[in-house]
Amino acid sequence: MSTRPIYLDCHATTPVDERVLAAMLPYFTERFGNPSSISHVYGWEAEAAVKQTREILATAINATPEEIVFTSGATEANNLAIKGVAEAYFQKGQHIITVATEHSAVLDPCKYLKTLGFEITILPVQKDGLIDLTELEKAFRPETVLVSVMAANNEIGVLQPLAEIGEMCRDRNIIFHTDAAQAIGKIPLDVQAMKIDLMSLTAHKVYGPKGIGALYVRRRNPRVQLAPQQHGGGHERGMRSGTLYTPQIVGFGKATEIALAEQITENQRLTQLRQRLRSQLSQLEGIHFNGHPTQRLAGNLNISVEGVDGAALLLGLQPIMAVSSGSACSSATTAPSHVLTALGHSEKLAYASVRFGIGRFNTPEEIDIVAKHAIATIQSLRKQTTLV
Length: 388
Ligand SMILES: *Cc1c(COP(=O)(O)O)cnc(C)c1O
Fold this sequence. Notes:
- The protein has two domains: 6-14 and 263-387, Aspartate Aminotransferase, domain 1 (Alpha-Beta Complex); 18-256, Aspartate Aminotransferase, domain 2 (3-Layer(aba) Sandwich).
- Helices cover 39% and strands 13% of the residues.
- The protein has eleven helices and twelve strands.
- The chain has helices at residues 18-24, 41-61, 74-88, 104-115, 133-139, 162-171, 246-281, 310-317, 338-342, 347-351, 364-387, and strands at 6-7, 68-71, 95-99, 119-123, 144-148, 175-179, 198-202, 213-217, 287-289, 300-305, 321-322, 353-357.
- The longest helix has 36 residues, at 246-281.
- It is globular and about 75 Å long.
- Pyridoxal-5'-phosphate is lined by residues 73-75, 103, 105, 150, 154, 179, 181-182, 202, 205, 213.
């Protein structure tokens, strides 16, 4: 039997589903053509595969296939959306609104734009992690060109009210971008009903391969202009040059298709697993369950633990479970999670936090092992601190 820890870090990444891998494999070897090659069958079959994924993604979010621009992932999609709008609408205005709990792939492009003279408003969140729509209302200015609010948070799983935000932006003729890296395949997304103009997607959080993502770019009512951030052969209607990575694109399509087909039953199953974990951890005193109780991703449970040292906690959990505090993308730094401090937690409490990302391949038995070990670890750490 494998002695590797139980994987519960599905917000960082997920394994490629076997069905996804099987769909991808022929595109590395026999069907290796360049989808831009228009003069032979190698190109045509690659192009047909790319087209199919465009259609799957478009259907998934109620867009059209022409509105899908492939990128290397959500980081690139966010950069293209934010910098692309800032540059294209420079004459109209230079003010952008985003949120304190966004992923660094949104916050950092905004910080970069600030160094170029753009004005950035970073909205706070409420204790439950949701933005306050009256704060958004107050933040709008005549020169606001873009609002960027994520669909689902990668640390605390909170789902922001996209339709309400979309409505407010559309009323004011402001472009609305959402980072949906954690949302695609997991919650219903509809760019028409939610009045979304730009949406960042990625494959590797839904059992697809790493290194592939997309940006939805609205073409009608209104048509969104984007300044390309990578120039070259004019691929993706000039918005993102570079030979399309056909095997990854095929995997992205298959992964999305599976996630959509299984969404309802899988969310029920994940909710049960989360409740199972939560109710066992609730036996302990001094546990904060972070994020809104119902406006959340089914597979996310994020706790802050009073009376323990964060580093010792993670070290104690490590042999049994693969979890993280904060997000994988910022865990190279030693700062506490900016998401948890935005909820109002002290630095010490934010450090003593654990993100459980439950996914497709986790079982109730694994959850019980994890709960048992987490409880024992926390109790033992608390005992040690009271002895000192
Ligand atoms: C993972 C993640 C990203 C980065 O996506 P990549 O495809 O790895 O670049 C961006 N935003 C959120 C919310 C994420 O969870």
